[in-house]
Structures are given as C-alpha cells and as structure tokens.
Amino acid sequence: LWMFFSRYEPQTDIPPDVETEQDRVFFIKAVAQFMATKAHIKLNTKKLYQADGYAVKELLKITSVLYSAMNTKGMERTEVSEEDSSKFKFDLGSKVADLKAARQLASEITSKGASLYDLLGKEVELREARTESIARPLEINEAEKMMKIAIDNILEQVQKTNDMLNNVALDEANLEARIEKRKLELEVSQKRLQTLQSVRPAFMDEYEKIEEELQKQYSSYIEKFHNLSCMEQLLDDHRRTEQEMFEEAANILHLMQNRLKEEEQNLLKSGNNDDSDMEIQEDEGSDSEGEERQTMKQRTAMETKVQG
C-alpha cells in the first residue's frame, strides 16, 4: 500500500510507521482519506486492514489508475520526435531489480497481513486475559515463593551440570590410565615377539632333517605310483588284444561250421538220385571218402588251433 501510495504521491507527509496497532490504523485511515479526496478513489479500510484477497482487490483500484497513467504517458511519448524518445526512453533492464523488490515486498505484505489478521482474531481472548491479569492484585508472598522455586530449579540444574562435568573428568582420567596400560602391554608383547623371532628353536635341526626325508619319500612314492599306473595300462592293453584275437578265432570257427553244414546238406540231397548216379558215386566213392577224410582233418586242426 505504501509503495503504490508513494508512486501516486511522492511528496507526502503521511508517516509509513506500522509497528504498533495505532500506527497501522492511522496509516490506513490517512491513505484512504487522501485517495478519496485527491484521486476520488473510495477504499474500504476494513478490507485493507485484513491484508488478504479482499485487500488485494482494494489495491487494484490504485494500480489501475497508475497503469492507465503509464499507458497515457506512453502514448504521448510516441508522438515525440526520435531525439526526445531516445532521450526519455524507458529502460526496462534498469527496472528489473525494482520489479523483483516489488514482488518481494508484495509477498511480505501478504504474509504479514495474514499473520496480523490471525493475531487480531485472537485479540478478544487475549484482551480478556490481559485485563484479568492487570486487574488482579499482585501478591508479594506468592511472587517471592515462585521466584524461590525457579531459583531452586536453576540451582539444581547447575548442580547436575557440575556433576556431569566432574564425571566426564573422571572418565577421561580412567581412559587415559587404560590407554597407558595398553601401551605398556603392547611394548612388552613387541619385545617378546622380537626375542622369539631372533632365537632358533632346539628342535629346528631335527625338523629340517625329517622334512628332507619326507621329501625323498614323497618323490619315491610319486615314481612308484607312476610306474604302477603304466603297468596297469599295459596289462589292460594286453587283455584287450587277447580278447580281440579270441573273438576273431570264434568268428572263423563259426563260419567254418556253417560251411560244413551246408556241404552235408548238399550231400544228403545228392543221395536221393537214381541208380545210375549211385554207380557213379560208387566209382567215385573212394575219392569222396578221401575228401571227407581231408575235411575232417582240417576241422580237427582248426579246433585244436582255437583251443590253443
């Protein structure tokens, strides 16, 4: 409100003090009276004092007048020559800071007006309590009693604080003593470790000898294990070869048996021929008997080979 009023009338005698309630009431009444007499703008003082949305509507009455004046002034400037227009040209860049300040002031005015409205809403209750407190006679004995109670509470808190400080000091001393003790124990342990590292144990020579013997035994074990594995592999190969030879001989024997069976069947079929054939067979009997003997000899020879 003061910003708009100062823009409308820069040379004004109205004080802008709004710290107390009376100053705020006087300021709003003076501004409303001035705007009513000079600008013929009627403002609602109650709505302005509430500092809410209705107060903004009242402020729009002043801003509309200022805005129309700026537009009228801008139209007059367009009629001025180029030199005058360049001389009196409105620099918007220089007014950015003023615009930000105006926005900040507007937000502050709104927030303060809202808080003021809330406080004024509680004024009725507070007024009664304030009046009652002022009207009540002051009892010196009761006030003295309350002061003593407050002093005792403060002294008790001070005593507790001192006790806590003393306890902190004792704890600090105990911790320092423990730290020193741990440091001494650490030094003793380090010295003992150094002595143990520097002294050679009595059983170390025997341990090294046993370790060498163990290494030799391990090497011998590895060699024997390797030889045993090779021998087992060779034995498996030999058994596999024998099995293959036996299977091959069995297959050959089976083939020979099948061939002999076929020859016998052929001989039986040829025995059913006529007498002329029998005579021819008698003549050739000696030859067939020789052949049968020869085949029997071959069969026995093959069986002996297979069995071998």
Automatic annotation (TrEMBL):
Keyword Coiled coil: yes
GO cellular component, one term: cilium
GO biological process: cilium assembly
Acidic residues composition-biased segments: 274-290
Disordered: annotated segments: 265-308
Location of the protein in the cell: Cell projection, Cilium
One Pfam family of this chain: Cluap1
PANTHER family, sorted: CLUSTERIN ASSOCIATED PROTEIN 1, CLUSTERIN-ASSOCIATED PROTEIN 1
Protein name, as recorded: CLUA1 protein
Organism listed in the record: Casuarius casuarius (Southern cassowary)
